[in-house]
Each structure stands twice: as C-alpha cells, then as structure tokens.
C-alpha cells in the first residue's frame, strides 16, 4: 500500500460531486487497467488496483463517503475498512459488483453490501479555557443522539414478536436479476436490503429501533490539547444495527485565547514589562506560570525584547514528549510620569551619559507667563 494515502476522488479520477454511477464507472475503468490478469506479477498494478478498490469501497457507501468528505481519511478510522491482501479478497468483497464473471456485474451495476451496519459517528465542539486545554480537564457535554430502543432491543418489532425474514430475498437483502448476458445483484426491493420486516412495530420507537435521547457524556480532555485537536471517544456515537458496533463521538476542541499567555506549539509565551532600573540593575521578579507564581532572575543589562526561559514550565505534549518551556519576552517600560525626585535623579544620571536630552520642563504657569510676555 502507498505510504501516504491519496485522496479517494483523485485515485478514481472523479470530481467530489461525482454521482454513484460516475464513481462506479471510474472504478470499472481503473479495475480494467490494473487487473491482475492483464498485469501478471506487477506489484505496482496490484497496489493501484487495491487503492482503487479501497477508494471505491468508501465512495460507493453513502455513509462512509459522507464521513470521508467531512473528516478525510481520519474519519474512516474505526469503520469497517477492509484491508485487502490479495485479489481474491477484493473479488470476494466486491462480489456483488463483479458478479459471477469478473466484470459482468460492473456493467450492470447495483447491489449493496449486506450485513449489519455500524452506527454513525457524531461530532461536537468543545470550547476550553486556555488553562483547561494546557492542563487537561473533564467536561460534561450534553448530547442529543439516537439510542437503541430498550423495549425492542433495536429490532423495531413489538416486544414478544420478531422481525420476519423477507420472503423475496430469503433474508439475504439482495436479489439477482438477469439482464441479457449479465447477472445483476441489487438490493431487495421488498425489504430495502435489510433482509427482514417488522409486522407489528414496537410502540416505544414506532418500529425504528432507536429513540432520540439527551445524554450527558463526560469527556476526559488530556493535557496539552490545542485549538483544532480532535478527541475521539470510542463507542459514544449512534447505535449500529443489532449486532454491529456503535459509532464514535468526535470532539473538536476550540481553545479560547488567554489574557497574557500565548501558546507556541508546546511553549508558552508571556510578554513581561519591566522597569528601566530592573533591566539595567537586574533583580528577581515574580512571574505568572501555568502552575502559579515563580521567581524569575533578571540579569543586569537585560535588553528590551530579550527572551528568558523557564525550562519545563510550558505545555505537556499529549503524545508524551517532553514538556515545553515558558518563554518570557521582556519589554522595558518607560514610566509615563516621573516624580520630581525621580526626574532629578534621572537628570543626574543623564549627565553621565553624554546624550542629548530635553531641558527641564517649565511648569504650565511659567509657560503661560512667558507666552503673554512675548505678545
Ligand atoms: Zn423499540
Ligand atoms: Zn428482502
């Protein structure tokens, strides 16, 4: 198999909007081109054939296709994706399209795969505060989802009764029709592919086998999740057909910005204003970190824009790598106002610098006075 999975639409060479017919046609073309009989012993063709089969497997199934469109390859993890190891398996799997002969069914088309379907997956957004995301948290989310009806165990049949096996297809869910030379398998028109019927529907769920419910689900958020992270909670999606597993719940994490912490991968950046004398003389200063206050040593001669570091005070990596650091970018703040004493001292200091500075400001009344004198 290819290392990086290609886009399924690209594999089959169809548009994202392609109809089921177009997809089938595209797969038929690919299957012909890379068919093992035509390319005996050619590993590249075999891989291409498998790739096309997998793309077709997903795109011909409306549910899987919808998940793929929404989530990409990720969205199919946990679904019943076949892992083909031989052509025989592919032909077995696509028996309903390939029909008796290799390509016969392809021309006639039709047919859906039988078997209980896995439940659909659900998607929710969870908004976290910056610190919740950095340190991990537990969240209870309210979810509306279909759940299996407990009265009928999901069968849809009134308790005490049982679904009846479809007489047209004998419970197989598909029928074989002959058209010309071809044998075509299609979904059974009587039971719609389910293989069975419900005569007396369950009153609790009106025969649907499932009931919408509100549920509170507790979600454990690992430390270090970032904006856009997806957390999968296995089995908390909608129920599958009886005998099939439920879908998953995908939580998409959104993280609110913090008032003064800023995340850079696993590092946390803090902008810290310090005074001129702290920068020039050095000293110890208290800084906020994710875990509370810490003393930070500032060296004498620190420049505005210098970045200091507290190792290991950053964000945990959800994959278990080393924790990030806290970075502190200092800015030297100029006081907007000086007391008289401060101004005097600073002017004394300035004399030693040999720099041009403004003369001592006149008081407002002195300025007004000199203004009138000049008139
Ligand atoms: Zn029911
Ligand atoms: Zn039937």
What hetero molecules are bound to the protein chains? Answer: zinc ion
In angstroms, what is the radius of gyration?
35 Å
Order of helices and strands: HHHHHHHEHEEEEEEEEEEHEEEEHH
> Which term fits the overall shape?
elongated
Mean of residue pLDDT? 83
Q: What structural category arises from helix and sheet content?
A: alpha+beta
CATH topology of the domain at 259-375: HSP40/DNAj peptide-binding domain
Low-pLDDT stretches are 98-113
| Superfamily (CATH H level) name of the domain at 259-375 | Urease metallochaperone UreE, N-terminal domain
Strand content: 25-35%
* Beta-strand segment tally: 15
> What's the CATH architecture name of the domain at 259-375?
Sandwich
> Treating each run of at least 4 consecutive H or I residues as one helix, how many helices?
11
| Oligomeric status | single chain
Largest sheet: 4 strands, mixed
CATH class call of the domain at 259-375: Mainly Beta
Helix residue percentage = 25-40%
Distance between the termini: 92 Å
Biggest β-sheet: strands ordered side by side in the sheet: 10-11-15-14
């Amino acid at each position: 198999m290819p290392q990086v999975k290609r886009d399924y639409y690209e594999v089959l060479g169809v548009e994202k909007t392609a109809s089921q017919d177009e997809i089938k046609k595209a797969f038929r073309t690919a299957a012909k081109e890379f068919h093992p009989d035509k390319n005996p012993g050619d590993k590249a063709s075999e891989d291409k054939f498998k790739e096309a089969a997998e793309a077709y497997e997903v795109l011909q199934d409306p549910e899987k296709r919808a998940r793929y469109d929404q989530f990409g390859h990720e969205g199919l993890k946990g679904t019943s994706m076949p892992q083909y190891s031989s052509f025989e398996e592919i032909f077995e799997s696509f028996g309903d399209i390939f029909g008796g002969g290799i390509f016969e069914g392809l021309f006639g088309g039709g047919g859906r795969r039988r078997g209980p379907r896995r439940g659909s997956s659900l998607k929710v957004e969870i908004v976290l505060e910056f610190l919740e995301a950095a340190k991990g948290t537990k969240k209870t989310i309210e979810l509306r989802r279909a759940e299996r009806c407990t009265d009928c165990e999901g069968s849809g049949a009134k308790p005490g009764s049982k679904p009846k096996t479809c007489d047209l297809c004998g419970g197989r869910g598909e029928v074989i029709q002959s058209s010309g030379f071809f044998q075509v398998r299609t979904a059974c028109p009587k039971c719609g592919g389910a293989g069975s019927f419900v005569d007396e529907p369950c009153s609790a769920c009106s025969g649907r086998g499932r009931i919408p419910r509100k549920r509170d689900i507790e979600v454990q958020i690992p430390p270090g999740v970032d904006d856009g992270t997806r957390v999968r909670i296995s089995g908390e999606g909608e129920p599958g057909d009886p005998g099939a597993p439920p879908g998953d719940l995908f939580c998409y994490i959104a993280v609110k910005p913090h008032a003064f912490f800023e995340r850079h991968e696993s590092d946390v950046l803090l902008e810290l204003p310090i005074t001129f004398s702290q920068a020039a003389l050095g000293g110890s200063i208290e800084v906020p970190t994710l875990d509370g206050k810490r003393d930070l040593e500032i060296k004498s001669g620190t420049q505005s824009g210098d970045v200091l570091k507290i190792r290991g005070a950053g964000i945990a990596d959800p994959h278990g790598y080393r924790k990030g650091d806290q970075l502190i970018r200092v800015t030297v703040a100029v006081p907007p106002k000086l007391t008289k004493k401060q101004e005097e001292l600073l002017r004394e200091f300035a004399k030693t610098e040999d720099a041009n500075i403004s003369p001592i400001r006149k008081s407002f009344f002195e300025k007004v006075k000199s203004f009138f004198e000049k008139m």
